[in-house]
Amino acid sequence: MSTIDLSVRPDSRRLADSAADAATAYIHIPFCARVCPYCDFAVVAGRDDLMDRYARGLVADIGMTEPWRPLDALYVGGGTPSRFGAERLAAAVGAVRGGFGLAAGAEVTLEANPEDWTPRLATGLLEAGFNRVSFGAQSFSAAVLLSLGRRHLAPDVVSAVRTARREGFPSISVDLIFGTPGETIDSWRATLEAAIDLDVDHVSCYALTVEKGTPLSRAVAQGAAAPDPDLQADQYELASESLAAAGYVRYEVSNWARPGHPCLYNLVVWAQGEYEAFGNGAHGFRRAARFRNIRRVDAYLEEVESGKRPRAGEERISGWEAELDRMFVGLRRVAGVADGPGVEAFCRSEEGRRLIELGIVEHAEGRLRVVAPLLTDAAERVVLSLAPEDRTAGV
Amino acid sequence: MTPQARIRNFSIIAHIDHGKSTLADRLLERTGALTEREMREQILDSMDLERERGITIKAQTVRLDYSAADGQDYVLNLIDTPGHVDFSYEVSRSLAACEGALLLVDAAQGVQAQTLANAYLAIEGGLEIIPALNKIDLPAADPDRVAEEVAGVIGGEPEEVLLLSAKTGEGVDELLERIVADVPPPAGDPDAPLRALVFDSYYDSYRGVVCYVRVVDGILSAGERVKFMATSEERGADEIGFLTPKAVPAASLGPGEVGYLITGEKEIDKIKVGDTVTTARDGATEPLPGYSEPKPMVFSGIFPAEGDDFENLREALDKLSLNDASLVWEPETSKALGFGFRCGFLGLLHMEIVRERLEREYGLDLVATAPSVAYRVTTTDGEEMEVRSPQDLPDPAAIAEISEPYVRAMILAPAEYVGTIMELVQARRGEMGAMNYVGTERVELDYQIPLAEVVFDFFDQLKSRTRGYASLDYEPSGYRPADLVKVDVLLNGQPVDAFSSIVHREKAYEYGKRMVERLRELIPRQLFDVPIQAAIGGRIIARETVKARRKDVLAKCYGGDVSRKKKLLARQKEGKRRMKMVGSVEVPQEAFVEALRVDD
User: Fold this and answer.
1) Complex ipTM, two decimals?
2) Which residues of B touch A385 (CB under 8 A)?
3) Cβ(A272)–Cβ(A321) under 8 Å?
4) Interface test with chain A among B550, B558, B577, by most A beta carbons within 10 Å
5) Measured torsion, CA atoms of residues B562, B564, B568, B571, in degrees rounded to the nearest 10
6) Each residue of B308-364: pLDDT tens digit?
7) In chain B, which residues have their Cβ closer than 8 Å to the Cβ of A381?
8) Min Cα–Cα distance to chain A from B366, Å
9) Which of B282, B312, B336, B340 has the fewest C-beta atoms lying within 10 Å of its C-beta?
10) Nearest by Cα to A209 from A224, A189, A227
């Protein structure tokens, strides 16, 4: 049985801190029908021929990992994992189960595109052990979906969520993107209402971000409209109000859940718990080291096929750095971070004090919390520059 | 020593780009002063910046040996003059070392204001003027019209104007003959006590200060003790000699001779341009006339962009000062810009040159405040003071009277632009004096105008309104009382000293409005609303607000990729480090540069 009690409020401090003790893993599935113009993840389009080989590669990758205890959560993301097919996904989950085991009641999440979703797929996934699905809905506006380069429309999302519910998925999430140029506040309101109407258990709302090297960034460089940060702020605030009114509790900058439904895998990352990572370009954190896998699919495959761990890099984190990392990942949470040497340094630093004075950050009841989530990175940048001597430096 | 009758001392008066350097090269070539191997293009403009801008900052001098058509050998001393309005005192000293001047005018462009000003200086100094047109080989040359103009300026007949092409060498032989024939040999009494004019100096890192001198009376001998009359410095004449342009030591220099003097002096400001050298024993009692201290006219605060560079900036200014006695500076502290120096310059070009040399030759990244002038303030207590920086202006209640420097500005332009020039000058509080035709198509306008209005992008405006045809020269013409106020700019309620300016009351609103509007564009959004205000004393005259930033967060933590997010934020952090904190407001370095930029 998983040691983590998810039935409390999603923003509970106890939950936030206890997630550090959970064991989780991430599996990356890079395959997409086509690459969305804003995406800069490790994905490939038009290489579905590699899927079988990739499935075997994953099994080999998982098999090379040192044994660990049974996992409390497994997250399969992408890419578009729903394109990978229930059988291959089952093989990957099977490898995890065989290698580490899955704790009773462990959270097993799959990211899925609405257009891939069928009753058959749903049944296959349930049989493979999945109990949580996160749909890349992004929007209910056809215009927004079109400019995001998505291949589905609102009815696909509605149908996918209903099918998942009917087939018995215990936890359903949708991802939404706001602030696409041209999207009005009213259009965003309609998207939020549609998601709420579907009665999903979890909602993630991400501001569209122009990432370097993407087609979107090239378009913007050539004069296409860029997301307007002020409108995005308005849209974020609207999301906060609407979702709260519908009973969702925000527990991280971009994530809202009903009680019992936060994403444990993410909670572990933000609590600086340990997570294994499999697949190309996947990132993990184990035994005080952050590591990343080879990003290119073919190179990744060659590595695992020759019996080698597919690492592209590893960085050991300890001491002061680990303390700052704990704050860096933890401050995104509503629960914030518990007191420690880093928090002490933050509160003594000039910039940190200033953020507290401005009411952006709060230090109370033994925790440091960002209370203006839209300004989280202002606090994160302060964390980056904290030095151990700040702990004792005079005011 | 050369007999006086065989000496001709002359300089060349020309506008930028009218071909003075090329002509000088030709003269060197014709007289064999340099072998072909030594011949380098434009040898006289040796400083890089000078060559690039086609102007001469430091005067150069060269002795030419010439065998004239009359069968006699002559010594021609070419004394170069600095070619810009800022250096008119230096020009006057160079001219004072000559008996003649070649007025060189571009046959296409015609006479320019600055040439005119220098030509008048030469005429007033009693120099024989040899008028000449250069670039007659150019298709655009209009020698008849320009000769008419030149004759109009100096008096005389257009036919007397020499036609030259320094590029092809046409007319150069005739010019040499004209110099011998027209320029009078130097007068001067070899038996009188020594009087030699210092007309320029430069610093040599091995030899110390090298002075260029022209002996007027008496004999300057190597090894003798000499005295600089203005400073009463006594020194040994360690070495004297001629410039061919290589330094050739000589035992003595007699009346009319031009050469160099090295005394081992290391500090350039101990040796003043315009000073008189005499012998330490039995020296002259009366110095040569015309000496004055160069006075800075334009002031600007110069700050290192990076605070760590303060000492490097001080060192660089020290080194520049070795060679530039007219550059004055003192430490200045700005709340916004940190530690820097308040520098005084002879004029705008001088300021630009110094700034450019600091950046280029010393690799410094600088922020300079808007140029200002020296105001004279009488306080209500009757105290009189000079204010060179807006920060030093006393409280308005304590000011009984404030006056500002005026200049006499001479503008020379084609007649069709007179209207637009008058408009510009009136907008700058200028008062017209005389208006005269030069030749048939161009007009010389004479104005009294506050120097503060000239330093503020006047020249650029003049050029753009006249498509580059107008030229400008100015000279100080005293102080006048004016209704001046200090406009402060406040960021988040705190005055930013670097943005303060002393302006005429009628222009205060316009200045304040422009500054706050510019700053609103230049200051990035912060975590709180930042009011930007312009104020006179406690009264706000303009206001803008930089609205608080509302969103400063990345959407995702990139699926566990913590390092990547850290890198991204670390980069943003680096960007912030380059900002200056003004109170609690982060102001990018460029904002200071941009806001203080005057050219738009």
Assistant:
1) 0.88
2) 573
3) no
4) B550
5) 110
6) 899 999 999 988 887 777 888 999 988 778 899 999 998 877 888 888 889 888 889
7) 569, 572-573, 576
8) 27
9) B282
10) A227
